[in-house]
Amino acid sequence: MPFVTVGQENSGSIDLYYEDHGAGQPVVLIHGFPLNGASWEKQIAVLLDAGYRVIHYDRRGFGRSGQPTVGYDYDTFTDDLKTLLEKLDLRDVVLAGFSMGTGEVTRYLSRYGSDRVAKAVLLAPLAPYLLQTDDNPEGVPAGVFEGIKQAIRDDRFAYHKDFLDNFYNVDVLGGTRISDQAWQNSFVVAIGASALGTLQCVDAWCTDFRADLPALSSVPLLVVHGTEDRILPIDSTGRRLRALIEGVEYHEVEGGPHNIGWTHPEVLNPILLDFLGKDRG
């Protein structure tokens, strides 16, 4: 199994698990909380069939990557991504992030520019700024995040059950667009993640990306968001980006929950392939 070393904690290295398949223009898929790179299953096969090289990896603390107690912030996450891109010497890359993974895409372009990047994709984005403040009234009150952290401390497993129910809108889509078995797989992945990493990621969700947004205009950008997202409400995130980023291609998935990549692939995948195919050599 391939790993890339991104840091050190005491006597051990911090290693990220990744997979690298296919040939053609590289598409790097960055997963959402609390899943892993394999959660892109319904996009991976489609991208490979369309002639793309597909790379996906597990964020530190999740999946088969190492579980350090440090580095759960977007500067570090972005440095991890940079290390992977450089190790594989990837160029003309499409960076595609879902949910928490949209933070790495946004911060990477802001910190390191578009030299290696051809296009960017944000699915159910975290930006521009999720935390409600005096100058960001559209955000979510700080007490909500404190409540989430307390729920994780009290019973991480019960928290994940509730989180994933809303991740897929199980009360509406259960048995049709999300099976009990697929939900259970997500639960197993979630509880296998680092307990400390799970907790510390909540603070990362409150990262202010507003100063990073101009960098997203440096490459063609696709944003897709489900209208019924209960995790990252569309009015606080995706819909705001239309006015904040010049030239963005924006789509909404009617009735889509947070994880539209799993529940609505017949809607999302054609949008994704059409965007990637534009001006493709």
Under the CATH scheme, the architecture is 3-Layer(aba) Sandwich
- Rounded Rg: 17 Å
How would you name the CATH homologous superfamily?
A: Alpha/Beta hydrolase fold, catalytic domain
Main sheet: strands, sense, barrel:
8 strands, mixed
CATH topology: the name is Rossmann fold
| Helix-strand category | alpha/beta
Q: Report the top-level CATH class.
A: Alpha Beta
* Poorly predicted spans: none
Write the layout of secondary structure elements.
Layout: E1 3-9, E2 12-21, E3 26-30, H1 41-49, E4 53-57, H2 74-87, E5 93-98, H3 101-112, E6 117-123, H4 142-167, H5 170-173, H6 180-191, H7 195-205, E7 221-226, H8 238-244, E8 249-253, H9 260-263, H10 265-277
Parallel strand pairs: 3-4, 3-5, 5-6, 6-7, 7-8
Antiparallel strand pairs: 1-2, 2-4
Structure report:
This protein has a single domain, classed as Alpha/Beta hydrolase fold, catalytic domain (Rossmann fold, 3-Layer(aba) Sandwich), CATH 3.40.50.1820. 40% of the residues lie in helices and 18% in strands. It contains ten helices and eight strands. It has an eight-stranded mixed β-sheet, sandwiched between helices. Strand 1 and strand 2 form a beta hairpin. The longest helix is centred in the middle third of the chain and has 26 residues, at 142-167. The chain starts with a strand and ends with a helix.
